[in-house]
Design goal:
The chain is an alpha+beta fold. The mean pLDDT is 87.
């Protein structure tokens, strides 16, 4: 068999060279578009279901949220297992599916079942996590400033940096760690409420009803339509303080009469420090399952240039980690091994055969084999 192949190759040199050129061309084209990563993603097909309930203890979360969600997901097509984590204020259920299950089909099934789950009044509807895996962290960056506090940095991260990075093709999610999530807080005074004969429910109801825009139809006049709209969205602390709860003897009782309003922050669940400069805000970009790491990271680098131009001059953004750096390091190792292997083959064959051409012919099999493997 080998002799026949050799004789055919010697008689049809042009055909052999043509096939070799085709293999090289296909190999180079495949190498330029091949998804490359430092290590394979062996994470199974899984979906996270998160539910937030800030007022419930871990035991109540397990009993009132986690168990109903797990019960509602039973019997899904391709479902391999369920595991959960219940802690103060949050429930997380992870549904694992059989290998080969389409992730979007799995999410569609879960979305249909979540609509049937009955949860306590006041608990937000469960939401699914991004289409990413534990190995999807491809980009880490920090926001820091000597003149701005952590609330401002977190606001810039949530409303300037995150929207721009999420538009990069292949990005599943951009999360923030550290900082202070801004929120308006109304601190009711029980004594003042009792003095005016009000309840906490009345205060909450007034805040909800007076923080919305409503439509009032339109007015037709002289052949033109004028839209009628009531603008009631609060925009500042003073707007909240001026909301009327009720009137007594014609005198309005406002929020500022029974409560103190100020700008605060959500409950802290962690902090981030960097390079001994104190606290910063950390952003983590997650790649969507099955995407090309190098393409996504390159897109994030380009988007980060836009972000730097949009941020205030005193805010610095430092990229701490790129998955591409690790991939490039691995590729350099592979290239070095190939070069050293080829040199050793040529040297050994030349030493034993005394023929440089024989060593070059054998060494050419190394890159050709690699290009053929990449094509396959």
């Amino acid at each position: 068999m080998a002799d026949a192949l050799i004789r055919f190759s010697l008689r049809n040199r042009f055909a052999v060279l043509l096939i070799t050129a085709i293999v090289i061309g296909l190999g180079l084209n495949s190498a330029l578009h091949l998804p490359l990563d430092a290590y394979p993603d062996i994470t199974p097909v899984q979906v996270q279901i998160n539910t937030v309930a800030p007022e419930l203890s871990a035991e109540a979360v397990e009993r009132l949220i986690t168990f109903p969600v797990e019960y509602g997901l039973g019997g899904l097509k391709g479902l391999a297992g369920l595991r959960s984590n219940s802690k103060f204020g949050m429930s997380q259920v992870i549904a694992t599916f059989e290998d080969g299950t389409d992730i979007y089909f799995a999410r569609q099934q879960i979305n249909e079942r979540l609509g049937e789950v009955r949860l306590p009044i006041g608990v937000e509807r469960p939401v699914m996590g991004p289409v990413a895996t534990a190995l999807g962290e491809v980009y880490h960056f920090t926001l820091a400033s000597a003149n701005r506090d952590l609330t401002e940095l977190r606001t810039l991260q949530d409303w300037v940096v995150r929207p721009r990075l999420r538009r990069v093709p292949g990005v599943a999610e951009v999360n923030a760690w550290g900082g202070l999530a801004k929120q308006f807080e109304v601190l009711a005074d029980p004594n003042r409420l009792a003095e005016y004969g009000l309840t906490l429910d009345e205060l909450i109801s007034a805040l909800k009803e007076n923080n919305q825009d409503v439509g009032g139809g339109y007015i037709e006049q002289a052949g033109a339509l004028s839209l009628v709209q009531g603008l009631g969205r609060v925009r500042s602390v003073s707007d909240l303080e001026s909301i009327v709860i009720k009137a007594q003897n014609g005198v309005p009782i406002r929020v500022r009469d029974v409560a103190r309003v100020h700008v605060g922050h959500a409950i802290r669940r962690g902090a981030v420090t960097a390079d001994g400069r104190g606290e910063v805000v950390l952003g983590i970009a997650y790649m969507r399952m099955g995407e090309n790491t190098r393409d996504v990271t390159h897109g994030l680098d380009l988007a980060m240039e836009d972000v730097r131009r949009a941020l205030p001059a005193d805010v610095t953004v430092d990229v701490m980690y790129r998955r591409t750096d690790l991939v490039d390091h691995v590729l350099r190792t592979v290239e070095r091994n190939l070069y050293e292997g080829a040199v050793l083959v040529i040297a050994v064959l030349f030493a034993f055969l005394g023929n440089l051409r024989a060593g070059l012919i054998v060494a050419s099999a190394i890159p050709l084999s690699l290009l053929f493997a990449v094509t396959m």
